TrEMBL record:
Transmembrane segments: none annotated. Residues 419-516 form the HTH araC/xylS-type domain. Residues 3-120 form the Response regulatory domain. Keywords: Cytoplasm, DNA-binding, Phosphoprotein, Transcription, Transcription regulation, Two-component regulatory system. The modification 4-aspartylphosphate is found at residue 55. Pfam families: HTH_18 (PF12833), Response_reg (PF00072). The keyword Transcription applies. This is Response regulator.
């Protein structure tokens, strides 16, 4: 819609013109009216109308004086004069002010409509030309930035520098911001183009920077006046709002600030490096030169990393089982720190956490039926794990998830420390149970916890655990299991050590026990040792 401002000192004329036509059907909208030249000047600045319909004779400053002042600020403003028959010669002199036309009062509806139709054609052509001109200008600046970023030489070609000068790109400093749109399963001319258009309106139109597309990223070359605002969150908010308007999320990284155009690739490469490692930053907005990266070291042997993670996961599982929520966050972070220090990739970290969560959820739901509903949502929870774009954010999500699991367990009178330990032994005798692990879970020293256990149970923790294991092994042997199968099933990885413990506790070797014969009746060595 093109805007129209009507100026006349007679209220009846103003109201009559407003209701005379169906303005919208002709492509116009009457934004306001004015009763005199002073009011008209104020409203012209306020609305910047495309057309003003002005009466020549008004009290105080007349229409010609008003038109002369308007022309100083608005050369392209279209003006239509309203004139009485007695003012005909006066109106003709007004044409020297580049007036479009004049209409005699009372205004003829058909004549005015014909004029407006012709003016709409002129305005449409001007608007199309302006858009094309702006598009070419923006496109040229974008291509120039792309060329500078892909320039491998430290000394860009003279023609490129001359183009940069003509485009007004010789600034005091430069900084590249890269934007990666997430979950985009569309063609390049889809949402990404719409996001780019929104960013262009925000940055180009306000002279904050030049928006460009390069490889799989959108980017902004920031002008010096806007680089200082990197310390605020406003720029990241604007970019995220543009992406969110198209239903997308994004990752934003800023490169190092440089002082010349030939160093522009340096800023670009540092932004790319941060984009590559974005997962290891705890930065909810834009990852920039001041953002702190989580510690990463040289790639380690995967087996070494796994062996260091195993006891952490053991402690985590027992913490969940005993309801000790206070240590869950620290253990999740410890596991993440180990993987980051080992140089694990984003996908490797996520895959490990997925395995850990699914394993713990499965084991807990076996012992606690009330967790079966939570375990059934596992697929959705795994998808959420893979969607997280930051390790600290992912750790917070997993911590909340596991705290929900632990909080959903219905516990009875097992809150008494020794009863909880005994219950753990009876349910997890076949796992890598250690007093040191439980001491961490219950936040006691291992020596003190061991002393409490012995005073309460009458034997040491290890003796009690071995006794339970041997009793379970007897049951398996009674069922026909071979000795090595029984040993492995109750937590012994060394068969010879199992034989030694079995004989010490049961008073008979496992082979003799299987035959249900006294130990001295036969020599174990005379029989198959399984």
């Amino acid at each position: 819609m093109y805007s129209v401002l009507i100026v006349d000192d007679e209220l009846s004329i103003r109201e009559g013109l407003v209701t005379l036509l169906d303005w919208e059907s002709l492509g116009y909208r009457v934004v306001d009216t004015a009763a005199n030249a002073v009011e008209a000047r104020h409203k012209a600045k306020l609305y910047s109308p495309d057309l003003m319909i002005v009466d020549i004779r008004m009290p105080g400053k007349d229409g010609l004086e008003l038109i002369g002042e308007l022309r100083e600020d608005h050369e392209e403003l279209h003006i239509l004069i309203l004139s009485g028959y007695a003012d005909f010669s006066y109106a003709k002199r007004a044409l020297s002010y580049n007036i479009d036309n004049y209409l005699l009062k009372p205004v003829d509806e058909e004549e005015l409509q014909l004029y407006l139709t012709g003016l709409a054609t002129v305005l449409n052509a001007r608007l199309a030309h302006r858009k094309n001109h702006e598009a070419v200008k923006v496109w040229s600046r974008e291509m120039l930035v792309q060329s500078l970023l892909m320039e491998s030489s430290l000394h860009p070609a003279p023609a490129l520098m001359e183009s940069a000068l003509e485009a007004g790109l010789l600034w005091e400093s430069y900084q590249i911001v890269l934007i990666r749109l997430l979950l985009q399963d569309h063609a390049d001319n889809g949402p990404s183009s719409s996001v780019k258009s929104r960013l262009t309106s925000s940055f180009e139109d306000n002279r904050r920077g030049i928006v460009f597309a390069l490889d799989s990223y959108l980017g902004v070359l920031l002008e010096p006046s806007y680089q200082k605002e990197l310390i605020s969150k406003r720029m990241a908010e604007q970019i995220r709002e543009a992406a969110a308007a198209e239903g997308l999320e994004c990752i934003i990284t800023a490169g190092d600030m440089v002082g010349s155009l030939r160093e522009l690739p340096v800023s670009h490469q540092s932004a790319l490096a941060r984009m590559k490692d974005h997962f290891f930053y705890d930065e909810p907005g834009m990852i920039g030169p001041d953002s702190l990266k989580l510690k990463q070291g040289l790639p380690a042997n995967p087996q070494d990393t796994e062996s260091r993670l195993a006891p952490v996961m053991d402690r985590l599982y027992f913490a969940l089982d005993t309801g000790n929520l206070l240590v869950i966050s620290a253990l999740i972070q410890e596991a993440g720190d180990l993987m980051a220090a080992a140089g694990s990739s984003e996908m490797a970290v996520k895959s490990y956490y997925v395995r850990a969560v699914t394993s713990m959820s499965g084991k807990l739901s076996v012992h606690y039926k009330e967790l079966s509903a939570a375990h059934s949502r596992m697929e959705e929870q795994i998808q959420q794990i893979y969607r997280h774009t930051s390790l600290p954010q992912l750790q917070r999500y997993i911590t909340g998830l596991l705290e929900e699991y632990a909080g959903g367990i219905i516990r009875d009178d097992m809150d008494v420390l020794m009863k909880r330990m005994v219950d753990l032994i009876h349910r997890h005798y076949d796992e890598n149970l250690k007093l040191e692990t439980l001491a961490d879970v219950f936040t006691y020293s291992s020596a003190y916890l061991g002393k409490l256990f012995k005073n309460t149970m009458g034997c040491s923790f290890n003796t009690y655990l071995d006794t339970i294991r041997i009793e379970k092994a007897k049951e398996l042997l009674d069922q026909g299991c071979k000795i090595h199968q029984a040993a492995s099933s109750v937590g012994f990885s060394d068969v010879d050590y199992f034989r030694e413990k079995f004989k010490k506790i049961a008073g008979i070797s496992p082979s003799a026990y299987r035959r249900k014969e006294p130990e001295d009746a036969f020599s174990e060595s005379a029989y198959e040792k399984d």
